[in-house]
C-alpha cells in the first residue's frame, strides 16, 4: 500500500499496519513486478534507483500525475535506514525549495518513496552532462538562471538550519541532489544521510558520529568534518561553496583547490564569457572564497550567503539595465539639471503623498537613450527644514550604496538653489497601508482586498529586504521606521521598502551586536521598539519589533498604533481581530505559524526576538503550509463534486 502523507505525522504512517488505517492502494501501473525496469529508470545512486511513473489523483479518476518513484535495494540494511530517515524528515519539512513527498510504501521487502516529478532533471545534468536529457537538446543555463538556482538552494539550506524546531543536517549537498522543476526552480533532494540536530536556537549544530564514519560525497565533504567527525551547519556551507564553484565553472569539485590561484577567466564556463557583470562576478567569487575556508568558524552562515547572492543578482540586473538603457549612475554630490526643471512645474493634481519632511509628486522623465518617458515619484524636501536636509543627505547616501529587489530604486537627485529633490521609481499601487486601512486612497481603480497569499508574499519580500539591510551589506543598516506606509507596491504588488531618512549605518554586518546609542529616539508611535524607546540603544532587533507590528496589521487590517490596542483594551480575543475578509481563507497551520512569528517579533526584549533571516524562513514556511492546504482542499472539493455527480 502507498501511504499518503499530506498533513500527517510520520509516526502515524509507520503504525498504519498495526492500527489498520485506510491506505491508498498502490497503483497497478507502479507495481514493482510490472514496471520497475530500466526503460523507466531516470536515475540511480546511493541505495536504490529512481523511476518515472504515473499515479491516479485521489478524487479525480480522469487525472494521473507524473511522479518519481525511488525504489531502495532489497538487500541493503543501509538502504532501509536511509528510507526511514528520509521519510521521517520529509514528513516534517515544508519549503518551496525542498522536494515534496507524495507517499511511501514499506511491505513485502519493498521500500519505495514517491515524490513530485522534476521534468528538468538535476542541476548536475545541466552543468556536466547534457547528454542525459532525453528528447530535447537543452541550452546552457544563463548566468541569471544559475544565480536564481543558487539563491533557491541557499534558502532551502537556511530553512534546514534555522526554520525548523530541530535543525536538520543534510550531509550530502551537491549538484546531483539539486533537482529542477518545469520552471527551473531548484528542489533539494536525497535526505537519506540527513540527521536531526539540536534546536535551531543553538549556535553550534554539532553532531559527533559514534563510529567516526564520515559520510558524504568526495569533493563536497568539509575537511574539518573529515578530520574530526564533527558536523556543523558550516559543513553545509562548505559543500554549498563547492556547488557555487561548479555552477560558475562547469568544472568538477576536485578542481576547487586551484581557485585561489586561478584568474576568473580561467575558471569561467565558456558559455558565460562576456555575460557576467564584473561587480557581480567579484561578489560571487568572494562568496565562494568565504564558503570554502578551511575552518567553519571563518565561513558565513547560510542566511548571510543567501543575502549576498541576492546582492549579486541585483548587481547583475543593474548592470544589464544600464547596458540596455545606456544610463549612467548618479553619485552623491552630483547635479541633475533635468530633475531641476521640475521645480517650477509642480501641481496639486500631481501630488501622490507625503513622506517624512516633504511632499511626493508623480512626474515623467526622459531616460537617456530612450525616446519613451518614464513615470517617476519626485520627493521635494521642504525648504528651510534642517531635519529635512539631514534626512535628504542620509537617504541619498544610503540609496546610492544599496541594491535589492525589494528596495525602492533611486533614479537621481538634485540639490541646488535651495531645492532638494529625490527621484525614485514610481509605484502605481501606492502604499501597503492604503490597501489595509484606506482603499479610498488608491486612485483610478476600485481595488479588491489583498488575498492572504498576496499578503504573505508581501511580508516575505519586506522580511527579505530588512534581512539584507542587517546582514547583506558591509556596514549593517538599521531602518528605524519600518511601517506599512513605508512599504510601496509596484504594478505586480512586489513590495519596496522606502523612506530611509531616519536610517542609521551600524557596524559591520557580521557583528552580533548592532548597537548604536542615540541621544534622540526617532520613529513612529506604535511601531517603536520599547527597549529602544527606554534606553536609546538601537539594534537590528528594533527593526524586528517594527516588522512584527506590520505582520499584525497585515493579518488584522487594523492600525497597530491605534485600532489593535483599542481592541485589546476592550478585551477582544485575537481571532476576533482578524480581517473579516480573511476569515475561512487562512489555513489553520499557516495561521498558527504566522501568529507565532508575529508574537516572537514583538517580545519586550531584543534578545527574545528572532533575527530577520529566521523570520524570512518562517514566513516562507507559512506560505508553503498555505499552498499545501489549498491544494488538499481543492482535491477534496473536486472529489466531493464527483460523488455528488455520481449520486
UniProtKB/TrEMBL annotation:
It catalyses: L-seryl-[protein] + ATP = O-phospho-L-seryl-[protein] + ADP + H(+); L-threonyl-[protein] + ATP = O-phospho-L-threonyl-[protein] + ADP + H(+). It comes from the Eukaryota. ATP binds at residue 70. CDD domains: STKc_IRAK. GO terms for molecular function: ATP binding; protein serine/threonine kinase activity; transmembrane receptor protein tyrosine kinase activity. Pfam families: PK_Tyr_Ser-Thr (PF07714). It is found in: Cell membrane. PROSITE patterns: PROTEIN_KINASE_ATP, PROTEIN_KINASE_DOM, PROTEIN_KINASE_ST. It is a single-pass membrane protein. It is an enzyme of class 2 (transferase). Keywords: ATP-binding, Cell membrane, Glycoprotein, Kinase, Leucine-rich repeat, Membrane, Nucleotide-binding, Phosphoprotein, Receptor, Repeat, Serine/threonine-protein kinase, Signal, Transferase, Transmembrane, Transmembrane helix. GO terms for cellular component: plasma membrane; plasmodesma. Residues 36-313, 346-619 form the Protein kinase domain. Its EC number is 2.7.11.1. This is non-specific serine/threonine protein kinase.
Amino acid at each position: 500500500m502507498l501511504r499518503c502523507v499530506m498533513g500527517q505525522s510520520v509516526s502515524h504512517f509507520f503504525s498504519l499496519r498495526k492500527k489498520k488505517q485506510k491506505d491508498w492502494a498502490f497503483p497497478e501501473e507502479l507495481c514493482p513486478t510490472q514496471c520497475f525496469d530500466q526503460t523507466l529508470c531516470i536515475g540511480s545512486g546511493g541505495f536504490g534507483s529512481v523511476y518515472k511513473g504515473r499515479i491516479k489523483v485521489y478524487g479525480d479518476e480522469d487525472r494521473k500525475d507524473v511522479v518519481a518513484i525511488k525504489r531502495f535495494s532489497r538487500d541493503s540494511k543501509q538502504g532501509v535506514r536511509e528510507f526511514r530517515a528520509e521519510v521521517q524528515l520529509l514528513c516534517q519539512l515544508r519549503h518551496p525549495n525542498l522536494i515534496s513527498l507524495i507517499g511511501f510504501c514499506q511491505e513485502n521487502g519493498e521500500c519505495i518513496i514517491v515524490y513530485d516529478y522534476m521534468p528538468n532533471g538535476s542541476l548536475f545534468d545541466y552543468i556536466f552532462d547534457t547528454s542525459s536529457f532525453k528528447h530535447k537538446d537543452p541550452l546552457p543555463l544563463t548566468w541569471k538562471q544559475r544565480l536564481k538556482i543558487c539563491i533557491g538552494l541557499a534558502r532551502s539550506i537556511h530553512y534546514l538550519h534555522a526554520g525548523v524546531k530541530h535543525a536538520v543536517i543534510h550531509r550530502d549537498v551537491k549538484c546531483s541532489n539539486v533537482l529542477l522543476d518545469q520552471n527551473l526552480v531548484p528542489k533539494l533532494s536525497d535526505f537519506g544521510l540527513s540527521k536531526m540536530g539540536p534546536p535551531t536556537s543553538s549556535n553550534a549544530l554539532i553532531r559527533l558520529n559514534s563510529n567516526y564514519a564520515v559520510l558524504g560525497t568526495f569533493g563536497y565533504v568539509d575537511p574539518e568534518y573529515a578530520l574530526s567527525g564533527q558536523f556543523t551547519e558550516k559543513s553545509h556551507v562548505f559543500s554549498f561553496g563547492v556547488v557555487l564553484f561548479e555552477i560558475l565553472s562547469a568544472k568538477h569539485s576536485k578542481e576547487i583547490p586551484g581557485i585561489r590561484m586561478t584568474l576568473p577567466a580561467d575558471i569561467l564556463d565558456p558559455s558565460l564569457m562576456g555575460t557576467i557583470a564584473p561587480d557581480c562576478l567579484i561578489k560571487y567569487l568572494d562568496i565562494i572564497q568565504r564558503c570554502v575556508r578551511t575552518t567553519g568558524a571563518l565561513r558565513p552562515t547560510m542566511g548571510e550567503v543567501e543575502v549576498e547572492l541576492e546582492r549579486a543578482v541585483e548587481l547583475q540586473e543593474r548592470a544589464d539595465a544600464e547596458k540596455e538603457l545606456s544610463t549612467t549612475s548618479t553619485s552623491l554630490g552630483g547635479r541633475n539639471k533635468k530633475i531641476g526643471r521640475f521645480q517650477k512645474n509642480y501641481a496639486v493634481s500631481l501630488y501622490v503623498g507625503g513622506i517624512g519632511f516633504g511632499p511626493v509628486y508623480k512626474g515623467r522623465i526622459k531616460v537617456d537613450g530612450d525616446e519613451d518617458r518614464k513615470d517617476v515619484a519626485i520627493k521635494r524636501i521642504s525648504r528651510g527644514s534642517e531635519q529635512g536636509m539631514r534626512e535628504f543627505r542620509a537617504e541619498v547616501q544610503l540609496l546610492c550604496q544599496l541594491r535589492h529587489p525589494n528596495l525602492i530604486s533611486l533614479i537621481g537627485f538634485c540639490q541646488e538653489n535651495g531645492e532638494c529633490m529625490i527621484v525614485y521609481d514610481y509605484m502605481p499601487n501606492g502604499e501597503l497601508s492604503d490597501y489595509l486601512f484606506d482603499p479610498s486612497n488608491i486612485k483610478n481603480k476600485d481595488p479588491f482586498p489583498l488575498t492572504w497569499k498576496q499578503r504573505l508574499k508581501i511580508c516575505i519580500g519586506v522580511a527579505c529586504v530588512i534581512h539584507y539591510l542587517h546582514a547583506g551589506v558591509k556596514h549593517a543598516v538599521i531602518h528605524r521606521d519600518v511601517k506599512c506606509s513605508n512599504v510601496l507596491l509596484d504594478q505586480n504588488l512586489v513590495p519596496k521598502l522606502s523612506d530611509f531618512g531616519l536610517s542609521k549605518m551600524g557596524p559591520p554586518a557580521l557583528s552580533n551586536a548592532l548597537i548604536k546609542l542615540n541621544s534622540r529616539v526617532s520613529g513612529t508611535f506604535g511601531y517603536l521598539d520599547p527597549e529602544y524607546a527606554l534606553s536609546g540603544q538601537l539594534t537590528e532587533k528594533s527593526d524586528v519589533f517594527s516588522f512584527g507590528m506590520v505582520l499584525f496589521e497585515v493579518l488584522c487590517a487594523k492600525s497597530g498604533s491605534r485600532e489593535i490596542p483599542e481592541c485589546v483594551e476592550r478585551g477582544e480575543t485575537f481571532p476576533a481581530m482578524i480581517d473579516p475578509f480573511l476569515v475561512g481563507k487562512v489555513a489553520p497551520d499557516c495561521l498558527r505559524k504566522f501568529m507565532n512569528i508575529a508574537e516572537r517579533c514583538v517580545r519586550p526584549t531584543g534578545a527574545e526576538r528572532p533575527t530577520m533571516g529566521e523570520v524570512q524562513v518562517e514566513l516562507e514556511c507559512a506560505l508553503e503550509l498555505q499552498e499545501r492546504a489549498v491544494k488538499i482542499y481543492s482535491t477534496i472539493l473536486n472529489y466531493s463534486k464527483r460523488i455528488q455527480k455520481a449520486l
